[in-house]
Design goal:
The chain is an alpha/beta fold. It has ten helices and 13 strands.
Length: 292
C-alpha cells in the first residue's frame, strides 16, 4: 500500500512540476466577450479568481516568511492569501484534512507520506518548492574532534526526521547504521557507535531551545532559521548530492482532489516564481534551496 501511495504521489509531483512550478504568475483569466457593435469597446479582461481567499498553514520561518512574498504576487491577481502560523507538525496537516485550511506549506514529502500512513489523512503535493539542509550544531562541545565518549547528541523524535538526523551522523562517521536502514532508521538501527554517543530524542521544535543542554543537536532547517542559527555555522550539513535532497523536499500540501483546482494552481505557480526564488537565495544564505 505504501508503495502504491508513493507511486501515486510521484505522479502528482510530476504534474505539479509541469503546471504548479512553471515559474509563471498563474494569472487565470477568461476571454472578453466580443463587442455588440463596432462602436462599442470590448469589456476589460477579468480574472476568474478575483475575490478568492486562500487559507494556508505554515511554520514561522522560513515558510510563513516565504508566503508573505507569495501574498503580494497573489494580491495582484485579486487573490487574498491568509497565512495561519503553527509551531508544530501535526495540527496543520489535520487542518488541511478537515477543510479548515486550503493548503499547508511546512513539511517535506517523506514526512507527509508517513503522516498519511499513520494518521489516515489524504494529503498530496501540489508543488515541490524547496529543500532545507539539516545541520549539526554545537552545544556544549564546539567541534566534532572534541566529542567525548558518551556525549549527548539531540535529534528530532518524529520518525522521518530522526532517520534523517541519524543519516547525517553516519555521514560524519560518528555512527554506522544497519544496511538498508535508510530514511526509516531509528536508534535501534545503530550498528556501530564507537564513541558511545547518547542519542537524545526531542520534539523538533525543542532542539534549538535545548541546544545548550547537550553537546550537539541535529536541527530541522526551519527551526534553525527561526532560532537565528546559520547553516554556515553548522559543524556538518547534509550533502547536497545525497538522498536527503530528494527525499526531504518541502512541498505545498493539499487534500487529495484539490491539487488541480485553479486557486491551488495559482498558489503553486506564485510559490514557484522567480520572485520567490530570488527571495530564498538572497535571504537564507543556503539554508533554503529552491528546487524549481
Amino acid at each position: 500500500m505504501k508503495k502504491f501511495v508513493s507511486l501515486l504521489l510521484s505522479g502528482v509531483l510530476a504534474f505539479g512540476l509541469l503546471s504548479g512550478c512553471s515559474g509563471t504568475s498563474g494569472n487565470a483569466s477568461t476571454p472578453a466577450p466580443a463587442a455588440s457593435s463596432p462602436a462599442a469597446s470590448a469589456p476589460a479582461e477579468t480574472n476568474s479568481l478575483e475575490g478568492t481567499t486562500l487559507k494556508v498553514g505554515a511554520t514561522p520561518a522560513p515558510h510563513a516568511e516565504i508566503l508573505e512574498v507569495v501574498k503580494g504576487i497573489l494580491a495582484e491577481q485579486g487573490i487574498t492569501l491568509e497565512i495561519v502560523e503553527f509551531n508544530d507538525y501535526i495540527q496543520p496537516n489535520l487542518a488541511v484534512e478537515n477543510g479548515e485550511l486550503d493548503a499547508n506549506y511546512f513539511q517535506h514529502i517523506t514526512y507527509m507520506n508517513e503522516f498519511n500512513a499513520s494518521d489516515g489523512t489524504h494529503l498530496v503535493s501540489a508543488a515541490e518548492v524547496h529543500y532545507e539542509p539539516f545541520g549539526l550544531y554545537a552545544g556544549k562541545t564546539a567541534s566534532l574532534d572534541a566529542l567525548a565518549d558518551g556525549a549527548q547528541i539531540a535529534v528530532p523524535n518524529d520518525t522521518t526526521n530522526e532517520a534523517r538526523a541519524l543519516l547525517l551522523l553516519e555521514q560524519e562517521g560518528l555512527i554506522k547504521l544497519k544496511d538498508g536502514a535508510g530514511i526509516t532508521a531509528t536508534k535501534a538501527d545503530i550498528a556501530e557507535n564507537p564513541k558511545n554517543l547518547d542519542i537524545v530524542e526531542l520534539e523538533a521544535s525543542q532542539l534549538p531551545v535545548r541546544l545548550a543542554d547537550v553537546d550537539m543537536a541535529v536541527i530541522n532547517g526551519n527551526y534553525a532559521i527561526d532560532a537565528g542559527l546559520k547553516v554556515a555555522d553548522a559543524l556538518a550539513v547534509e550533502a547536497a548530492d545525497g538522498e536527503a535532497a530528494t527525499a526531504y523536499v518541502n512541498v505545498l500540501a493539499v487534500k487529495e482532489g484539490n491539487e488541480d483546482s485553479p486557486a491551488i494552481q495559482a498558489l503553486a505557480q506564485a510559490l514557484c516564481s522567480d520572485e520567490v526564488k530570488t527571495f530564498m537565495e538572497e535571504t537564507y544564505g543556503g539554508a533554503v534551496v529552491p528546487v524549481f
